[in-house]
Amino acid sequence: MPEKKKRRITTYLAAILFLLGVGFLAIEPLQNYMIEQQSKETLTVDAADFQENQSHNGNYDFSSVEEVSVEDVLKIQFSSQELPVIGRIAVPEVGLNLPVLKGLSNEHLLTGAGTMKPDQKMGEGNYALASHNMTDPSLLFAPLHRAEIGMNVYLTDGKQFYVYEIKQHKIIEPTEVSVIEDTDQSLVTLITCNVDGNKRLLTQGILVETVPVDESDEIAAHFNL
Question: DSSP string of 149-169?
Answer without folding.
Answer: TT-EEEEE-SSEEEEEEEEEE
